[in-house]
Amino acid sequence: MTSSTMIAGAAHTAEAPAASEFREPPREAWYCVKSTGSLAAGAMTSITVLGEQVVLGRMKTGRLFALRDRCPHRGAPLSQGRFDGEAITCPFHGWRFGGDGRCQAMPTLVDGDVADPGQVKVGEFPVCESDGIIWLYMGTGLAAAPPVPALTLAGPALCRVAVSVLVEASYDLCVLSLIDPGHVGYVHNSWWWRPTATAREKVKDFEPLPFGFRMRAHQASTNSRGYRLFGRPQTEVDFLLPGQRIERIRIGERSIINATFATPIDARRTLFTNVLLADLPQLMPLSPVIRWAARAFLRQDQRILELAQQGLERKPTMLLLGQADRLAQWYFRLKRDYAAARHEGKAFSNTLVPERLRWRT
């Protein structure tokens, strides 16, 4: 089915990509796949990203690896085999693969067989670790891709909380929720965050970034009760391709980073991962409460996004109106321009310009 999304701005109407196009996340991007603490040395696990099964592991030496989760012999999943911290043994016929994907042994071979195990290799994916997060890259041309985001605090991290929620909804629908100011007072209508009855007009200034855009530093809203715990701190929010929202909150000399990453599992499922880092000592004993609140927040998004997905499957169109939806327009524009640049082999250039937006929430 092909259909389009009509985007209506303050003074113009434009056509977004067909629904079949905007549901396809870019392969040439880093995706958050795990929290560091969940993958010990000598452990491996199976993950799915962009519809592909990947076996992710950590060698005894601490080095990460990511391989296509399929033995080239008869197709068995390597993640169901045995990993001794140095190599994976396939559960079907015992073929043994190192962390680089190279086959080290084929137990069934006998003298006279001409097969060379070292000539067999499982597909390997770039993987890295930063700020307690494991990132996976599924495409080509790594040098031209948006970089892994840096979550840098003013001081050493004293509090770290990470939670994930799987959402049965398309990637783009989920990413839009990261940059949707209008939904906060309804989906997250909670006594401990922002009751709908407190809605008021907001004015925010935005500027382009190399692979996204930034809501410039401003004093946090008075109708967001979570912020009021810290007085009226300064907050700045970045949105980066492919689907990353990073908020930096300054409280005097201290800081909090609240980041949410969207990872496409397949065409129908998206993983949200929220990571909070802080150098405020008073937050250390509150980690369980913060974890509860973060999970509750993501669950609220999960419920409404899964309902919206059902509606989009019946009629895959969206009507984006007003300045509150301008951020969604920017996302589609960035995504389309990035895809075009990669297809043409050109360097990506962000054509967004600084703009002041107003909305009510």
Strand order of the largest sheet: 13-19-18-17-16-15-14-21
CATH class of the largest domain: Alpha Beta
Q: Which topology of the largest domain does CATH recognise? A: Naphthalene 1,2-dioxygenase Alpha Subunit, Chain A, domain 1
Report strand %.
25-35%
Radius of gyration: 22 Å
CATH architecture of the largest domain: Alpha-Beta Complex
CATH superfamily grouping of the largest domain: Naphthalene 1,2-dioxygenase Alpha Subunit, Chain A, domain 1
Distance between the termini: 35 Å
User: What is the succession of H and E elements?
Assistant: EEHEEEEEEEEEEEHHEEHEEEEHEHE
Largest sheet: 8 strands, antiparallel
Shape category: globular
Low-confidence stretches: 1-22
User: Count of DSSP E strands?
Assistant: 21
Domain unit count: 2
Helix content: 10-25%
The structure class reads: alpha+beta
pLDDT average, as an integer? 89
